Amino acid sequence: MPEKIEKKEITSELQESYLDYAISVIVSRALPDVRDGLKPVHRRILYAMMEDGLRNDAKFRKSATVIGSVLGRYHPHGDVAVYDALVRMAQDFSLRYPLIDGQGNFGSIDGDSAAAYRYTEARLSKIAEELLTEIEKETVDWQPNYDNTREEPKVLPAKFPNLLVNGTYGIAVGMMTNIPPHNLGEIIEATKYVIDNPQAEIKDLVKIVPGPDFPTGGHIYNKSIAETYALGKGSITMQAAAEIQERKENVFDVIITEIPYQVNKSELIVKIAELVQDKKIEGIKDIRDESDKEGLRIVIELKSDVNPQKILNFLYKHTDLQKDFYLNMLALTDGLQPQVMSLKDVIAAWIKHRQEVIKRRTEFDLRKAEERAHILTGLVKALDSIDAVIATIKKSKDRETARQNLIKKFKFSDIQANAILEMKLQTLAALERQKLEDELKEKKKLIAALQFILKNPKEMLGIIKNELTELKTKFGDPRRTKIISTEVKEYREEDLIPQEDNIITLSQASYIKRLAPDTFKTQKRGGKGLIGFDLKEEDFVTQILTAKSHDNVLFFTDRGRVFQTKAYEIPEASRTAKGKSIYNFLNLSTEEKISAIISYPKNHGSAYLVMATKNGFIKKTPLDDFTNIRRNGLIAINLKKDDLLKWVKLSSGQDEVILTTALGQAIRFPEKQVRAMGRTAAGVKAIRLKKKEDSVSGLDIIIKKEAKDQRLLVVMANGFAKQTSLKQYRIQSRAGSGIKTANITSKTGPVIAGQIIDEAEEILAISAKGQILKTKINSIRLAGRATQGVKIMNLDAGDKLVGMITI
Hints:
By secondary structure, this protein is α+β, with helices and mostly antiparallel strands. The protein has 4 domains: 38-157, Topoisomerase II, domain 5, CATH 3.90.199.10; 241-320, Gyrase A, domain 2, CATH 3.30.1360; 349-470, Topoisomerase, domain 3; 493-806, 6 Propeller (Neuraminidase), CATH 2.120.10. It contains 17 helices and 41 strands. It has a 4-stranded mixed β-sheet with strand order 14-9-8-17. The longest helix is centred in the middle third of the chain and has 42 residues, at 343-384. The protein is elongated. 39% of the residues are buried.
């Protein structure tokens, strides 16, 4: 037979062939189906494993067996491609909820390849079975396999929105999909919210799903997450979880415990080493990978006298410790049409799919129930006329004749007649007859319930919600990835944190921690106090203050700079814990120390910050000048040579100021005598120090309307303290030498603090070696200005009081 050759323009042929190829790649290889979140190869692997009985409670089987089954039945492609897909589904650092339970070497976060498939073993994970459940009930459409010898599912029933839960990545012809994994519990709650609120907007959903939840943890910084989810595409900045730890005095390590998703740990370490080798970064002494079965841990040892925060910031900028995830939520809708979808679109598409699955499952169950009820009806009817039925069967010459006679005489259906002929004699017993009647009643109830579901779409949605709730209970777990920034104002971290009282302490070696006030029990005056810190011998407490959880906390350095954070961002610790290095939070140089810490609420009533220096200078600046503080801090005061910023207090601008000195002087003057100045001003003289060895030891604000009942509490280094009525301190002019406030001797030691007392009931006194005494203020007697006071704390040899607060 002669060949028939058709002439065709080559450009037209190329266009058609390329389009056919592109469609094949898009539909059959590279893009996931929005309904089950799977590409064909993943779907075929899971279904083939289910066919082979490799459920979660089955014994493991060689991966080679699975690969052979998939290639032979459904996927006529290379074995490497199939095994790579199986391996990824088993990796807990690739999928948030792995679909394959693997045994053996399935690769690592260092980029190591999995062992050959003849060495590894696999079975379905528990959550994978939820994608396949009830597939036998005609819940999905089927199609012939490649050689037309069997059928395979076009999509899986998928009890949860797997596309969002585990994410996916794929490159097709002219298009790409890149969907991050999410937290199962959050996606389930968002899906239930859409079911209840079909008109829900993205801004509502991001309150429930604040961002991706990567299996490798880390942090996400993204101010436009709502926009990204609304458009179905955008970038999300990922950041490693790292902290700065002090190895020894002024020598720090950067500890990395979580890295961004899909970052190769080994390559990351090599990149850091190259930066050091090329001298693009200085200050790194050594890099060690201390990761083990307990978790990831990379230690970057720093040289002495380097700013650890600057090193970490450089690494964020120049390595994959900070990396953008480019989200593109492209998936196949209806199994054929590629479409970029919003977060709500994906959820709505899954809900629609699940409704169809529930409908088909219910129809299947209804059909089976009706078939069984039909048979039971015939059996019960036959038992009602059992003698006539038996007589009819006995008179028939063979089974076929008996069947026809039963149909003709008793109006049984063909199915009922066959069931009667197969009925055992034991069915004639009274109890067996009752069982048939009870089963028939149950079937009728079931039929009514199934028919009700089919007639009521809301009932189907309720079933979906109930199934999702069960899945959340079974597989839900806490979020691993921390959201450190989001543009949705209604979903702030502080909204999840209770407003509570806290005590914040800072040590001389710059360790900070936050404690509950009831950590310390009240003791009698003159006690030894509790151990307040597990400190090194050369370390001691220097700062202590009270703050509400949501308060802003300002940190002032002795060099005149200021930094800001939230109280709840300071790590909570036990009474005896050392705390965390302040360098984890603030971009401090090793040459400056925190000298003052104050806290104030968001809606503060105070208008000014009053600052005092060691050499007796004072400055007043509006608090509003410190609302926008950069990461590197702001200048709070311009200090003169050899002077240090030591105290900062809040004031209304209409109050009075009182200062005490180490050698027992005090001065009180109206705040109005200090005019408001800008942040970079140096301030004016507050008190004239008569002796070179004297220095300012305390600053406090006297609220004028409460001054009548207030006292000045003075605490001395050797554990002495006293209260003196403010009436004994006359108002003077600023810049004077003041008047005597305490009789300073070798027994009392210098004044280390002076504070106004009004409503406070207790005092917390802290020693250099970490002893803390909490005692009632009324146990400290009221005395004159020129007295020594009473001993409030017995100190060990060589120990001194270094600070106190009232609560």
